[in-house]
Design brief:
mainly alpha; elongated
């Protein structure tokens, strides 16, 4: 009972990972229990706090499940609902913790985010190198693709930081940037390479979904 409270409540939900899904989730399952138990000991929760944590965990597990299974929601609406629930859950968790415990939780979140970002960058590079081999890219294609990715990343970052835009306008702008990136990528790759690239992405997407079941 003491080991289940730390999942979404403390570390929050994460997004898809760029590395091999099967490899990532196998590694994650192997390390997760040990890390949660170690952090539980570090927080030194009282019996009352642990009971409250488990109550919150159970409640939000049901609410996340309801959102996940709601077929009336669009993918964007589902993501927004998940984000909203995560914020509510973290808020409730913070209310039952002491100031010192909240500080430890926040430090753990920051550490986790940095670690995740580093792994994400590492495996993206590995994936791109594999993609170079799979598609038999020329040096010119590799450089053009890297420039395209950097331009797209920079433009999306600018949109996200533009406080003059509403959230809906930001989503529309980001969608346009990604559409333009897709169109430019078609010009970089041959028709055969692009079809193989789409097939590669499809396999990776389905493999990722299977690994999370």
């Amino acid at each position: 009972m003491k080991k289940i409270f730390l999942s979404i409540a403390i570390l929050g939900s994460t997004v898809a990972f760029a590395q091999s899904p099967q490899k990532y989730h196998k590694q994650k399952r192997a390390n997760c229990a040990e890390k949660k138990e170690a952090f539980r000991q570090e927080l030194n929760l009282s019996d009352e706090q642990e009971l409250a944590m488990n109550t919150i965990q159970k409640k939000y597990k049901e609410r996340f499940s309801e959102v996940k299974n709601n077929e009336e929601l669009s993918p964007q609406e589902r993501r927004e609902a998940f984000m909203s629930l995560s914020k509510e859950q973290k808020s409730e968790v913070n209310e039952i913790l002491t100031a010192e415990q909240v500080q430890k939780v926040n430090e753990k979140r920051e550490s986790f985010a940095k670690e995740h970002k580093g792994k994400k960058k590492k495996y993206r590079k590995a994936d791109f190198k594999q993609l170079q081999k799979d598609l038999d890219l020329t040096d010119e294609q590799v450089n053009d693709w890297k420039d395209l990715k950097e331009k797209s990343r920079r433009n999306i970052k600018e949109v996200k930081g533009n406080e003059a835009l509403s959230e809906e306008e930001k989503r529309a702008e980001i969608k346009n940037i990604r559409s333009e990136k897709k169109a430019e990528l078609k010009n970089i790759l041959s028709e055969e390479q692009y079809e193989k690239y789409k097939e590669n992405r499809s396999k990776k997407h389905h493999g990722h979904k299977r690994s999370r079941r």
